[in-house]
Amino acid sequence: MIAPPYQEDRSVLRDALFKALSDGTRRALLEYLVREGEQSVHALTAISGVSQPMVSRHLGKLKQARLVTARRAGRETYYTARAKGLAPVVQWMAVYGALWSQRFSALEGLGDGE
Amino acid sequence: MIAPPYQEDRSVLRDALFKALSDGTRRALLEYLVREGEQSVHALTAISGVSQPMVSRHLGKLKQARLVTARRAGRETYYTARAKGLAPVVQWMAVYGALWSQRFSALEGLGDGE
DNA sequence: GTATTGCATAATCAAAAGGTTATGAATAGG
DNA sequence: CCTATTCATAACCTTTTGATTATGCAATAC
Q1: Fold assignment, B7-82
Q2: From the alpha carbon of B74, which nucleotide's C1' atom is closest?
Q3: In 3D, which of A48, A89, A41, A92 has the Cα closest to residue A65?
Q4: Nearest nucleotide (C1') to the CA of residue A73?
Q5: Which of 1.10.10.10, 3.40.50.790, 3.30.70.20, 3.40.630.30 is the CATH number of A7-83?
Q6: In chain B, what residues touch A93 (CB-CB under 8 Å)?
Q7: Which residue ranges does the record assign to the HTH arsR-type domain (chains A, B) (predicted)?
């Protein structure tokens, strides 16, 4: 049986996402990909300040969190920032950030299953 | 000389914020504070699944990230979710989430699916 | 007064995470 | 074919981090 998007899968992804974003080097890599578009590991290593294996590992975590995608071309691998990757975080923020300031009014109408 | 809000201070706070949010137990504590409002350490310990010292330490990190405030009342300490605490993360997302969506929106659209 | 409750901190530990160098597998180029 | 490039993985080390129990200090209760 093929798995539908279980609640648990969602929370696992969300956790991987928050963890992926918690490291400054990873955020820098992601920011660079956003600004400059698709980049090879070689190019990312040049601007990262850490070793190439470390860049590969960081990219692996970003990929696992679905924040980037990888494209193999010959001996090079090109990574691209993934447009919708931050959506789960945005969703979380919508509930625990934005609604938060207007807690009393907003929660009444939502019935978020306390 | 009193320090104005230096760039470095900003990035330090932002880093503390992302790190604070990277742990599931801390997020659960924060979520509970958002939903239920001000709570004592005792009450938070009861729902957290970890020991009281651990709750205190998690709350300390949330406080350092400016996501909660503490109010001492007698021998109890009441913690409250801080409304504007997530602002730096929202700002970051505005740049590296929205900008990024814009770059690719023509190709991918904005839905939350695959 | 003494006992108890609520919280923070210290001491300690195991596991996770970030870093490195070394290695190996493909691909490209001479 | 031989060499160089690109990348991922392995082995290893150090620091950080999440967790525990033990302790100490205030404030409340008796």
Answers
A1: Arc Repressor Mutant, subunit A (1.10.10)
A2: D27
A3: A89
A4: C27
A5: 1.10.10.10
A6: 86, 89-90, 93
A7: 6-101
